[in-house]
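Batch manifest line 96
LIGAND: FE2/S2 (inorganic) cluster
JOB: complex structure
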Amino acid sequence: MTIIIIRTILGASEKECRMYICLCNGYRDAEIREVAESGVRCVREVYLTLGNGPCCGTCLDCAQDIVDDVHGVASAAPAAEEPAGQDDEAPLMAAE
Ligand code: FES
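JOB STATUS: finished
ARTIFACT:
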């Protein structure tokens, strides 16, 4: 996922940092956060509130993370690992 960070040159500070989340629509993190803070929990609804729905969808996971952060939702747990020592391709034994 590509994230572009643009800082304003004049008096640049962390608060002035603008991060584009959706390159198709030009939506920034602050815009997504603002809509989420109004009570919207679905990222597609956030996009429609901002004007357009998602196009390619590449940004949706990142945008959903912002929405979840606003609403205090914990991020998804990492996928469980497969148990070690399980070999699906065991060698075939010749019948006698
Ligand atoms: S980058 Fe957001 S819809 Fe394509």
